[in-house]
Each structure stands twice: as C-alpha cells, then as structure tokens.
C-alpha cells in the first residue's frame, strides 16, 4: 500500500544541528550521562558526513535553515556558561541562551509520518516531550513549502497521544512493526524513565495514514531502547524480499516471538547485544541499495548486511550522536 511504500525513499527530510548546542535533554541512556566537553563544530561535520552519505547513495536531502541560528553564525567558537549564556570564546558578549535553544531538533527520526496520495500531501505530527514541542513549527513550515512547490494539497494532523514519530515505525514489505512503551514494563529493572511512544499514539498515526490493522505488528520496548529504531530497521535487500534487521533483546516479553511469527523467522536478520546497545546498529538508514551505519559496528554485522546485497557506508558519530544518543536515522 502507498502509505508503507512511501516510508522509504531516496529523498529524506533532515535538520541540521544547532550551532550552539550541549547535551541537555538526558532522555535516553546515552544522553543521561553528563559530558564535560562537546564540540558543535565536530558535531556539524559529522552531520555533513550523513548528508554526503545520502548523496553518495543516490539520494537527496531536503532541509530548511532556521532564523534562530543567525545569532550564532560567524561568531567563531562558542562557549556555554553555567547559567546558560552563550558567548564567543574570549568574549563577554552574550549571543543567546541555551534555555531557548532547540538542541534536540537534529533528531529527525522524531519527525512526522508523511504520505503522498494522488495530489495530497498528508502528515501526522508526533506528540513529543515538552522540551521538543516547539520544533513542530519547523515541520509545518517545511511541509507547507514542499506542498506549494509540488502542487499538493496539504493535510496535517496532530497526534493527540504520546507518539515520538518515525523512530517507532519499521516497515517490512507490506507489514509495519509499531513500537511503544508501557511504564512499569519498559523501566521495570531501573528507576522510572520519561514517557515514550504509547500504543494509542502509534495506533492513531497508523490510522491516519491508512495502514490496515491486519498489516500492523505491535510490540513493547524495554529499557534502554527508547525508540524502535534502536532495536531494528526495515531493510530492502537486492537479492531477496524485505527483512527486519533486529535485536531480539530490545522488546518486552514475547515481543520478539510475535515479530518472528508475523514476519517469518527467515525474514529476521540478527543484531548482537553489543552492536545494538553500544554501537546503535539498529539505527541505520538505507538509501537506495546503500545502508548508512555508525562507525564501530562489528564485522559480523557488516557482513550480514552485505549478504543482503547491500553496500555499506559508515559514518563517524562520536560527537553528534555518541554523546547525545542517536544514529543515521
């Protein structure tokens, strides 16, 4: 169906990291570790390597720079003081305040689910944590511009339930794996964690884009897997039908077994614990026949992707995602 075919394409909507940034969210197991030093310049360079990888794979990236960044540009290296003031290194001039900076915006995996139906461009917006809700303006404006340029009618709906966007969507052919978290299950072995996507939220999103109930596979996450894209991703091999590249330990209860029954065991490609948790191997992005993966994944993981007839493009993510908690997706 069209809503699932459109999930994976060669044109990707991306967002640049802010020129002034620090690790302030602390909403996942990597970003809840404090880092004393963070390099926005290196983070930006790492983001550029993702764009280079998209283009080298035969794809393209659509983005829209934001006026909020203007105050930080051409100021040299920036420094964030303990009170949140942002100043050029060696200067007393304050150019901004970190309390007003949307540091999480680069994580476009938390963006809307967008489908094209005839001449209509339809999108369901995520319902995210409070500190990220101001990011919605970016997507509304960009979608409006894309609709105007393409001659589409635009329909945008807000998800009334907690849903963290495309990070919890994994399409495998005509089926889609929808991940969510239940408090007390998700964080059963640790202190209570911030709320993640809900069953109602993924339901609403799938209803909006028109995915039949029979094509949905619902599974719960367990900590530290705050999104489905830290557990698995849908891959399109060149030599066989679609598969789910998947870490079995990232799902609550019998979640892995239910995925195996729904998709078929032969359509699962295993990710090891170390690759999944320490290297973010599940957070990969396929563009055409190329898969962008984080540097540091194991040779065995790379070999499993090559057996699918796919080409590997590794990207360095030490600053941008290693400290903040994310990957190419």
What key attributes describe this structure?
three-stranded antiparallel sheet, L-arginine/glycine Amidinotransferase, Chain A, alpha/beta, 21% helix
Q: Tell how many strands the DSSP assignment holds.
A: 17
- Provide the β-strand percentage band: 15-25%
Indicate the overall shape: globular
The name of the CATH topology is L-arginine/glycine Amidinotransferase, Chain A
Within CATH, the superfamily carries the name L-arginine/glycine Amidinotransferase, Chain A
User: What is the number of domains?
Assistant: 1
Q: How would you describe this protein?
A:
This protein has 329 residues and is α/β, with parallel strands linked by helices. It has one domain: L-arginine/glycine Amidinotransferase, Chain A, CATH 3.75.10.10. Helix content is 21%, strand content 22%. It is built from 7 helices and 17 strands. The strands form 6 sheets. The protein has a 3-stranded antiparallel beta sheet with strand order 3-4-5, with no helix packed on it. Strand 12 (232-235) and strand 13 (243-246) form a beta hairpin. The radius of gyration is 19 Å and the shape is globular.
